Amino acid sequence: MWTYDLEADVTAAQAARALGISRQVVAMWKANGKIKPVRRKGRSPLYRFGDVIDANADALSSGHSHRSPRPVAA
């Protein structure tokens, strides 16, 4: 079983990949104040993974799914 460390610091790209959303969604949540960077790694802000999961859960519960479209098998 795959587990995630909710306390881990992750980049927007890492969080997006794990949740199946785009980096732009993570950036939008930052701009809207839903998540805040906890520190930086070089030029990249790092977010607490649990905060990103919470923001995603809020978006899903409010009907604002930001999941990337999956290709449909022919």
Spatial strand arrangement across the major sheet: 1-3-2
Helix content bin:
40-55%
Task: Choose one word for the global shape.
Answer: globular
Number of helices: 3
Radius of gyration: 13 Å
| Terminal Cα span | 30 Å
| Percentage of β-strand residues | 5-15%
Count of structural domains: 1
Write down how many β-strands occur, each being a DSSP E stretch of 2 or more residues: 3
Average residue-wise pLDDT: 86
Instruction: Spell the H/E element sequence.
Output: EHHEEH
InterPro entries: DNA-bd_dom_put_sf (IPR009061)
Protein name: Helix-turn-helix domain-containing protein
Organism: Dactylosporangium roseum
Looking at this protein, list some descriptive labels:
globular, 74 residues, alpha+beta, 41% helix
Question: What layout of secondary structure does this protein have?
Answer:
Layout (H helix, E strand, L loop, with lengths): L8 E2 L1 H8 L3 H9 L7 E3 L2 E5 H13 L13
Antiparallel strand pairs: 1-3, 2-3
Structure at a glance:
The protein contains 3 helices and 3 strands, in the order βααββα.
Description:
- This protein has one domain (9-60).
- The chain is α+β, with helices and mostly antiparallel strands and 74 residues long.
- The chain has a three-stranded antiparallel sheet with strand order 1-3-2.
- Helix 1 (12-19) crosses helix 2.
- The relative contact order is 0.22.
- The longest helix has 13 residues, at 49-61.
- It has helices at 12-19, 23-31, 49-61; strands spanning 9-10, 39-41, 44-48.
- InterPro entries: DNA-bd_dom_put_sf (IPR009061).
- This is Helix-turn-helix domain-containing protein.
- It comes from Dactylosporangium roseum.
